[in-house]
Batch of 2 targets.
Target 1
Amino acid sequence: MGRSSTHQEIAQKITSLHEVAVISHMRPDGDAVGSTLGLGLALQTLGKRVSMWIEDAVPERFSFLEGAELVTDPPEVLPDGVECLICLDCGEPKRLGEIGRRLTESAPVTINIDHHETNTLYATMNLVQGSAAACACVLMPLLDALGAPLTRPVANALYVAVNTDTGSFQYSSTTPEVMRLGARLLEAGVDVGDVNRRLYQELPLNAFRLQREVLSNMALDVNDLVVHYSLTAARRRELQLRLEDTKDLVDIIRVLRGAKVALIFEELEDGLIRISLRSKDPAIRVNDIAAQFGGGGHPMAAGIRKRGSLSEVRCAVLQAIRSALNSQA
Ligand SMILES: [Mn+2]
């Protein structure tokens, strides 16, 4: 395992390099895309050669960001000339995808910048702040240490990252510090109305069909303390869903009054079950529950990928949640 470094040490290292690659986790969310573009574009303005890689395409929702077309799938082999691989918003190498994970092994130097408590400090240099609301919040002081100008494209990217990871500045991770960062980004030219319309008011029709499906078929457990929905592979095909369409499903059911835990169980085509977990009670840490099944994340938002049948996996995870709720009572 690598050691922890300061913003200054990492800025010094990056300053000494000519060519870097920035990578973030597969099935990217707003923080993954926004942080990748924020750092990648900023390093370009500093005269670096920069590649930006994410396995699975940039979701359509974020494709309006300037530079989004520069983000590509990672190459099978690290190109000659890349001196350093910078991993963003990623708690462990396998979240980069199989190709990305292998790249961390072949890169001469790796830098890990993240905000997952469960981060395994897998890189040569690690800058991890478990309490930060988004990876972008860890990046901002680094950009300052690098002397990178906060251009509008960089500010837009960082704003999307912080906005989406804080649930539009609603989660308790939204500290005064986060709001100050938001203010800086607005001063740098972010058009709040325009960006939020693009993020939240441009839902395609199949997303409505999916929402209808979720609301019709959600299930309750443990005296309504737990709400969950299961999407079978067959139903996914019928609704013609893309990978990115199910990303925020859990937000539809988590709003139920009285619910402490919300979950989405998704049957993927390759025999994997993907589970999104959200807690509404700080005493219920869903990343601890996820860890029992090889998953991880944050106390209030976590994920699991597990092989097995939908009913088997659902039964085991719900049982673990019942135990957590019972030990609390
Ligand atoms: Mn994040």
Note: The mean pLDDT is 95.
Target 2
Amino acid sequence: MVALVCCLGCQPEQGDDTASQGNSPVPASSRVEIVDGVTVVYFTGNDRMRFSLTEFTVKTGQPVRIIFENTGEMPKTAMGHNVVLLKQGVDANAYATTASRARDTDFIPKSEADSVIAHTNLLGPGEKDTIEFIAPAPGDYIYLCTFPAHCFAGMRGVMRVE
Ligand SMILES: [Cu+2]
């Protein structure tokens, strides 16, 4: 699911560290914008095990599209990244621990499928994936990378639903 974005005007520019939007709280390497009623969220992960966006806000009941890109250079087997958005109340640390053992399924444990709202594929350098879902009930929802140890190194964020 990589090809949905090009026709909607939401494709981020390359080398977009210069694309700062003044006082916007969203870092330059990330975007949160509404396109045709869809909240489009773009952010990246890198070799330093960081998401470029660790908090964003959406409106309940509205469609959300997350476009996630691995902008690192290290091989996927050493530094793969994904985005897993958890349901409310799920223990992110426990989920991450279970997920770290699920190498056969790219660190998405089938046994914990009920804990997940949506997730991207595990991405190697330069890869991008898109997920879409309807924003759930108001509240805070954790997203994390489930590659072993990445969540604990800080590769996580919060989606706030209003
Ligand atoms: Cu990661």
Note: The CA atoms of residues 83 and 145 lie 5 Å apart.
